[in-house]
Amino acid sequence: MMPRRELDNKVKGRHQGVVAGCTPNPAKDEHFLTQLLGELNEPVFLLILDGVTDPHNLGACLRTADAAGVHAVIAPKDKSASLNSTVSKVACGAAESIPFVQVTNLARCLKSLQDAGVWITGTAGEATQHMYQTDLTGNMALVMGAEGEGMRRLTREGCDQLVKIPMAGEVSSLNVSVAAGVCLFEAVRQRS
Fold first, then answer.
1. Is 186 left (phi over 0), alpha (psi -120 to 50) or beta?
2. The 129-130 sheet, strands edge to edge
3. What is the pTM for the complete model shown?
4. Residues facing 76 on adjacent strands
5. What is the pLDDT of residues 100-156, one digit of tens each?
6. Contact partners, residue 159, CB within 8 Å, separation at least 6
């Protein structure tokens, strides 16, 4: 037991009476991804985040990906959120359990995945095909674009197909973490 003042001095922000020292789970790299693909004995299931910069959204996406049974979450090193305390808090443990792979060149990573037999499905509001009409089984990676801008041009061009979530209301898009949840669990439904 430590007096509250000592705890206050050890942390920034709130601590709720408990402080733990730990080392964050480091992001993985392309070599880890290659190794993962070689070791899996079931269809590959990946989530790719293109330019998601909000740590709250990254944490929520990691949590949902973990719940859906995704093997790894991939994001570019630049212009994307990285693992930090906010991500860990929002992810509720998923940041420590699901591999987070940061790649130098996302377009090159997509090509490498395709060469390994992974089908790349991108999400875009202007797509003509609804995700519920799309086969999301087998080796697949789902690509979610950045908040506001969606996928970058090279990422979009690297996808094998583009799908959209049918929207019935006046709002034209969903938050990236909500959209990831909808799409990932449609894939889970199809894959089970």
1. alpha
2. 100-103, 72-76, 45-50, 140-145, 119-123, 161-164, 129-130
3. 0.88
4. 103
5. 999 999 999 999 999 999 999 999 988 999 999 999 999 999 999 987 788 999 999
6. 110, 120, 121, 122, 143, 151
